[in-house]
Amino acid sequence: MKNVLFFAIFFMINLCVFAQQEFTLSGKVTSKGETLPGVNVVVQETGKGTMTDLEGEYQLKLPSGTYTLKFSYGNSKTVEVNLTKDTTLDVDLTNAQETLDQVFLSSIRVDADSPITYSNLTNEEIEERNLGQDIPVLMSYLPSVVTTTDAGAGVGYTSLRVRGSDATRTNVTINGVPYNDSESQGSFWVNLGDFASSTENLQLQRGVGTSTNGAGAFGASINILTDRYSEEAYAEVANSYGSYNTHKHTAKFSTGLFNDHWEFAGRASLIKSDGYIDRAESELKSYFLQGTYVEDNTLIKALMFGGKERTYQAWYGIDEETLKNDRTYNPAGIYTDEAGNEKFYDNQTDNYQQDHYQLLWNQTYDANWSSNMALHYTRGRGYYEEYQEDASLSLYGLPNFMANGAEVTTSDLVNTSWLDNHFFGTTFSLNYENSKLDAVIGGGWNKYIGDHFGEVIYTRFAQNNDPFEPYYENEATKTDFNIYGKITYSLTSNLAVFGDLQLRNINYDTQGPLEEGIALAIDDSFSFFNPKFGLTYQLNVKNRFYASFARAHREPTRTDYENALFSGNPYPEEERLDDFELGWRFASEKLQLNVNGYYMDYQNQLVLTGAIDDEGAAVRENSGDSYRLGLEVDATIKVTDQLSIRPNVALSQNKNQDFSARFNGQQQNFGDTDISFSPEIVAGNMIRYSPVKNLQLNFLSKFVGEQYMSNIESDASLLDSYFVNDFNVQYQWKTAPLFKEVVFTALVNNIFNEKYVSNGYYFSYDVQNGTFPSGFETVEGAGYYPQATTNFLAGITLKF
């Protein structure tokens, strides 16, 4: 480590020696003759930026060269400047327009004038750490976000929680098109390997947020915008390598805009990793293709993207004793051979391919009217394969047989469980905007068709069906229609009111038996009305205040129905959430500060019980009344032109009210208890330092407080707090021979070698014991998903 630090310091000193002479670029930003304070000014080549002061003035120090500056204040404008001396550049944003690509999300995204709590992650911030890890890992330092990964190293099955709400409660859209799986309502990032390399930016809205398409946002929503079209042709190749044999290979290209209207672009990627956990390897193949037609008032995009993944199962977790002695142990695929030796089946894998097709059309009609429309289709198919030891033949649709005069009812076998689905529909919005009013009417209609079935592909003793006949088949369909209207109206120059009304209708139908041989027959319909209201008050150029109320409803998932069926409980009920938000935004040249308080009041919240099913999916049950009360603070502090600090902290109280559960053979009331997987404190920080031009150093920290994995506050379900730190370096070589640019990137994760667990599960069951009045005693246990200790990734990107 000392040698590494020595060479890093030596490298930085040498760069400083060769630093170029700097000049001052300054000016004033105006709109309709009025100065504009709080305008973001970013140098696109370096990512360096500032903000206009109270007089609308800005100042940057840059070495000589040609730069593209982006001025953003809601809408944006780019200006190119050739800097050879101290220069004054005044900019008028009167006729600035939104970047055309951005309008695809204009109906569901928000900005600083909205009474919605949000964070943005830009393309530049994504590129700094984009070395193969999944999007949730790249988002881990945003406020109130907790991430985890089954394989332990950020590749493969990863997920995130926001304000304690899991992935099934986070609405995800890509270019405004729903991404969440219709039945599980989760987002499986493993099917979008290296999607970060095709992401222009994303916005995380915490709480209910604004109305969007797809699954209801019950804790957060994530809006992803894919790569914008490029006016200039380019190509780039990126390769990275790191711990656990993790490597990523990416190739991208764009034709640039030709004939003034057309552009074609694409990407192909391969990511492989052995994983931190034993045998938890991943192979992720993905692609992204885009065709664009652009005219003055028209933007049409045709997109194809998708991925094919093969991951060894790592969703079983390990117990406490194994965690202490062998934290990378993976029990998946274990069996005993004829000699009594412990073996692992080498193809205990999850295999899935998902392909997405989108046709997007934005049209601007005049200075006031514009519209968006999208047609989409998603094709998914895949299976997971498992070795079953001494499996009951009847459970797999196989006949018993005679051997040595005795009837044999079991056999070792290998089965596959399949999901084959289609998802298609449309989304649309119509927007009217003038100096005081911004109104949108939009919605979407989507349909899902999914087949669930299983096959036995190998039997050790028994005779298999020939050809393979499914031993279970369950068909599901789901339709989802929503329509919404949104209005933002400026009552005065300082006060704006926001209104948002949504109607959503869902029908879910299933027929046929499950893998366990039990029929799952559902025909449920839901109609939800989700109103949202808010106020934004601008006290002065630096201070904005907002308050909002939002209501959301959520239907149960397929897993919720299944678990109720197996437990003998009634089918779960719909959930309701009333979300109250109160916030303050402060912006000056040296400090940007966001403070937000929230109260989320749930009725019949489907909370995580802590248990998982055979496929690693979390088990949930209605908890009656519950709430989340919290305070979130995040800031960007500009210490100098080279140094900035970005801290954030979220403090919360998350409670089930009068919670009851079965324990020691009796139904017991535990009173007010902590909601599972909801730490009271989540904090992060990023220290960004640029000692010389094109060199960026980031030191990132994340603290997650202790949390229970059950709703009864059992000590057996307690996950310890953890504090992890990463170090990230990026250097852009602008004058490299043969290339337009060469980018070197390195990332050291968990630099202090913290042995931590970010996720797990809790289970309990009753056993007979005469010492208790009920005659039963509850036995408790837990499983854990350990995360990687110190590990690294390093990469190089060649841009042509």
Describe the structure.
With 800 residues, this protein is mostly beta strands. The protein has 2 domains: 1-97, Immunoglobulins (Immunoglobulin-like), CATH 2.60.40; 234-683 and 692-799, Maltoporin, Chain A. The chain contains 5 helices and 49 strands. It has a 22-stranded antiparallel beta barrel. Strands 1, 2, 5, 8 and 9 form a 5-stranded mixed β-sheet that branches. Mean pLDDT is 89; it is low at 1-20.
Total number of beta strands: 49
Q: Percent range for helical residues?
A: under 10%
Whole-number tally of structural domains: 2
Quaternary structure classification: single chain
- Low-pLDDT runs of 5+ residues are 1-20
CATH topology of the largest domain: Maltoporin, Chain A
Task: Give the overall shape, derived from the CA principal axes.
Answer: globular
Q: Name the average pLDDT.
A: 89
Structural class: mainly beta
Largest sheet: 22 strands, antiparallel, barrel
**Tally of contiguous helical segments:** 5
Query: Any idea of the CATH class of the largest domain?
Result: Mainly Beta
CATH superfamily of the largest domain: TonB-dependent receptor, beta-barrel domain
Strand content of the residues, in percent?
A: over 45%
Distance between the termini: 35 Å
Radius of gyration: 27 Å
CATH architecture descriptor of the largest domain: Beta Barrel
Give the secondary structure arrangement, pairings included.
Elements: H1 2-17, E1 22-31, E2 34-35, E3 40-43, E4 49-51, E5 57-63, E6 65-73, E7 75-83, E8 87-88, E9 91-92, E10 118-122, H2 123-129, H3 135-138, E11 145-149, E12 158-162, E13 170-174, E14 177-178, E15 199-206, E16 220-226, E17 234-242, E18 246-254, E19 262-273, E20 282-294, E21 298-312, H4 320-325, E22 334-336, E23 342-344, E24 349-364, E25 369-392, E26 401-403, E27 406-408, E28 410-433, E29 437-459, E30 472-490, E31 495-511, E32 522-538, E33 543-554, H5 558-567, E34 575-587, E35 591-603, E36 606-612, E37 618-622, E38 625-638, E39 643-663, E40 666-674, E41 681-689, E42 695-704, E43 707-708, E44 718-719, E45 722-733, E46 741-749, E47 757-768, E48 776-786, E49 791-799
Parallel strand pairs: 1-8, 1-9, 13-16
Antiparallel strand pairs: 1-2, 1-5, 3-4, 3-6, 6-7, 10-15, 11-12, 13-14, 15-16, 17-18, 17-49, 18-19, 19-20, 20-21, 21-24, 22-23, 24-25, 25-28, 26-27, 28-29, 29-30, 30-31, 31-32, 32-33, 33-34, 34-35, 35-38, 36-37, 38-39, 39-40, 39-41, 41-42, 42-45, 43-44, 45-46, 46-49, 47-48
